Amino acid sequence: MSLLRNKWIVLLFNVMIVTLLFTVLAPVYDLFHYINQLFYIAYFYLFVGILLWVIRGGFFDAITYSFRRFSNKMAKQKDYLDDWKQKPLPSQTIEKSWLSFFLFHGAMLMIGLLALLAVYYNM
């Protein structure tokens, strides 16, 4: 777990994953296909990071609360041990460290992607 705490080692690991995917999946070894593989990994991180950001912001809290309330009211067999009001909402279950992890790595890989695109189009 201590390796995951060092964000630069994980960033280096991500670049190695991109390089491995490039060597395995690319039909031709050129900068264009490397940029494509980097795009897939970078935007996976950004997609997960932005999704966690939206969840942590409380966008789905009201929907989750209303579904819990509705299912409790409409249940034929009441579960009196289930306290639906006290269950944590989705915004309370997302830790800030995971949010910053995904956003940082997505942003760093995107910066590398933009730098490689600048090199590619200036050739």
From TrEMBL:
The chain crosses the membrane at residues 9-29, 41-67, 98-121. Residues 35-117 form the DUF3899 domain. It comes from the Bacteria. InterPro entries: DUF3899. Keywords: Membrane, Transmembrane, Transmembrane helix. It holds the Pfam family DUF3899. This is DUF3899 domain-containing protein.
